[in-house]
Amino acid sequence: MKPHPNVLSPVHVADVVVEVEIEASPQVVWKALTADIGRWWPESFYCGGGSAPGRMLLEESPGGRLWEDHGAGDGLLWGVVVNRRRFELLELCGSGWGPVTALMRFAFEATPRGTRLRFTEAAFGRLDEAGLECKEQGWRFLLDCLQAHVHGQPAPQWSAGAS
């Protein structure tokens, strides 16, 4: 009997949690995350190729997309908004890269100094320790970029492997 050509691979679940304190109201942070995302999202974090430089867009209503637009119909879909409570919560379902699916959540909490933004990603699929560490570092960096944007500071520089 011939061996079956398909192979079962283990599926893992990973939880990434990253928090950042931003000295601005939830309304200001919300606008920076949604309407202004293309102003602070670093070029080094575009994952899709394309015929032109990319721009990141986030359509915040349910069914809206978090996506890279590279022009001429080229782009990459990061996720689709599945839940929105303006200034409080934004949830997206999308790709976690590789054969991985992820639920991403941005939760906004007003604090005496501004906003605590808590990002979580629950991902399942073909994951390993290195991939989990990379996800955590990447999301930490992106939230640091958002924070710098809101604070009117220069964006941090990405350094792979740095935490």
What does this structure look like?
The chain is an alpha+beta fold and 163 residues long. The protein has a single domain, classed as Alpha-D-Glucose-1,6-Bisphosphate, Chain A, domain 4 (2-Layer Sandwich). The protein is 21% helix and 40% strand. The chain has three helices and seven strands; from the N terminus they run βααββββββα. It has helices at 26-33, 37-40, 129-151, and strands at 12-22, 55-58, 65-71, 74-85, 89-95, 100-111, 114-125. A seven-stranded antiparallel sheet has the order 1-7-6-5-4-3-2. A hairpin with a 6-residue loop joins strand 2 and strand 3. Helix 1 crosses helix 3 (129-151). The radius of gyration is 17 Å and the shape is globular.
What's the SSE blueprint?
Blueprint (H helix, E strand, L loop, with lengths): L11 E11 L3 H8 L3 H4 L14 E4 L6 E7 L2 E12 L3 E7 L4 E12 L2 E12 L3 H23 L12
Antiparallel strand pairs: 1-7, 2-3, 3-4, 4-5, 5-6, 6-7
